[in-house]
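Methods — Computational structure assignment.
A single polypeptide chain was analysed. Its primary sequence is given first, followed by the predicted tertiary structure written as structure tokens.
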Amino acid sequence: MICEHNFICMDSGYYTCILCGVMDIDRPIFISNYNFSTIKNYHLYRRRIYFTEKLRLLSGIKQSFSSQYNDMIKHLQNYEFNNIEELIKLLKKHKFHKFYKYVHSIYFDIKKERLIKLSPLDIEFLINQFI
């Protein structure tokens, strides 16, 4: 069955189909002169940004802007590891705690192999499915 999409204005900040629940993310709702302090703000864009960042981290696309990142990569190239768990143990042993979230990027920079292969188009598709 194909939905005809009967969109109505919802609290989510986007028009939502009352029949199937699909959100029209191309038409955000802007309300001027509205007191937002009285209600909780659940915005779709925050979920989208969060999910985008997590997918980019998992696919090894996002890298740290820290000046210590390249030094850490050079340091860890001297050690042997075969999987993410061993790499995390190395990071812990050498006190690179703040780089845990970049573990897939570190693995790629050292081994030149992506563990999770996602193209930017795949990421965009998954984000739209998530929303």
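Note: Helices lie at 44-58, 68-76, 84-93, 103-111, 120-130.
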